[in-house]
């Protein structure tokens, strides 16, 4: 990369990226701990390793843009601005949670932040993203809808149906595949006949590109460019963000289907140390500054756990609330 | 007899049938290399190889449709949907195709296939992953529906399902996988469809359940015995065909009946069974049919309130007391 970071972004923005990635990382580590203590139950899918995708892509969008995701959704919600306290309380099943304890880890939602949800049915978000984009287009809101999804979900019928639809009606959807190479234990080439996933959009006449999803700067630049393209032309676009999850699919997966050496190689590309190295090399931040940021993130995460612990459970009557308007 | 878990009993049934019949194949999401999300298909890939045990993409509608085609071609596919919740993505192939092709083609073809689906609630998996959809499948003619409660039935019913020439929806409860019981080792051990089982004989109240609800009913009966109340517990074992004969015979004896269903009450199978009881032995009933059902709400995540939505042991015990106190 020829450019220096300083030429691309302000110091504040760069440190912001670092802080957000660290916050997500620490949040997920804390979730793992709370899960092992039995405070978080059900399915828990951690985002560890993929932080650059959520942080970079969110930064490349405008605040008014919609974003939605699958069930591995803590980071996207937090980066969008959801209060970690409320996210943690949701994971604890408490009344103060983002969704009053009714959603849990896989179903975060924050409409005031235009975070339009985490969905646990693989591929469930494609038609919803397409519809959100149509709605905002009809209302002339000039929004882009960023639809995040995993490599595995591209084999659902809804993927094909939605991409075709989005191009046919020319809707402002930015499809962002988080290709972490696995759908649970099935490696991408064992599930997709065309393993170069970004090439699968040609059948829908949707332009696409592949981006290094372990590089927050690359992710930011690509998303910004693509989002503005989508906004301007009112047409869908597709980004394949190449990334990796460092942990198993969920807390119950020991990830025996991949070798430790594979994981080790990917860990050398960990987006957080990579950014901090560049920040230090280019004199944008000092070691002390970065440590300070990390400490601040840790404190926020600890605070979120405390908040969740101290929060009340939902009232029994809550089961009957929110079913109908 | 050997003691084994519900999970291992299903696994054994798959292995025995695959050994017996080379046309039996198993596929689904993460069933081969990963050995199943619930580890039900452990050891299958290594024993039977990758032609007969295959992973496939996350494409539920096509998973079922491929089984329909393969079955019409002469194979006996046993497809796994990772959970019953994802059967909703496959309802077109299940309802419009699997259940229809034989009939609409005038009986000229058959669809000998099984779709296995773990399901049920109680693990804080939230609204999209905790559903009990048994009534959905019962509603549609053209397919059979099994829902074993015990390891022995899990083995025997699955083996029967695989040998069956009609399509079978085979429901497994996620919270039963680790439950243990005696299982016949005989590779010809088959449990017939349409034959409920009396898990426990009793005089005062009939408890009708299936899957995990049958287990809870049995536990409730054991507890009620201490209060001097004698319950007969019937495990339906298959929902289609439904063994109403056995249910009616029991109700004629006890005069009181509670139907326990994990699914939502509205249009749930308990209402259907209740109406058949009224039709079949209204004159012998000492009290209205009592239904203990899942609450008509999407499942909340929080464990504090999740348990309110699924029939619990205490609720069944209380329900039986209420039933006996009916002023009839
Ligand atoms: C319709 C449906 N089928 C199956 C599942 C079970 N399941 C949950 S996550 C998953 C793998 C998805 O992989 P991918 O899309 O690559 O996302 P990742 O977990 O890697 O983020 C599967 C099969 C599901 N939740 N929904
Ligand atoms: Mg993946």
TrEMBL record, chain A:
The keyword ATP-binding does not apply. It comes from the Bacteria. Its EC number is 1.2.4.1. Coiled coil: none annotated. It catalyses: N(6)-[(R)-lipoyl]-L-lysyl-[protein] + pyruvate + H(+) = N(6)-[(R)-S(8)-acetyldihydrolipoyl]-L-lysyl-[protein] + CO2. Residues 20-314 form the Dehydrogenase E1 component domain. CDD domains: TPP_E1_PDC_ADC_BCADC. Its cofactor is thiamine diphosphate. The keyword Cytoplasm does not apply. Keywords: Oxidoreductase, Pyruvate, Thiamine pyrophosphate. NCBIfam families: PDH_E1_alph_y (TIGR03182). Heterodimer of an alpha and a beta chain. The pyruvate dehydrogenase complex catalyzes the overall conversion of pyruvate to acetyl-CoA and CO(2). This is Pyruvate dehydrogenase E1 component subunit alpha. It comes from Geomonas diazotrophica. The gene is pdhA.
From TrEMBL, chain B:
Keywords: Thiamine pyrophosphate. Pfam families: Transket_pyr, Transketolase_C. Coiled coil: none annotated. Its cofactor is thiamine diphosphate. It comes from the Bacteria. Residues 4-179 form the Transketolase-like pyrimidine-binding domain. InterPro entries: Transketolase-like_Pyr-bd (IPR005475), Transketolase_C (IPR033248). NCBIfam families: PRK09212.1. This is Alpha-ketoacid dehydrogenase subunit beta. It comes from Geomonas diazotrophica.
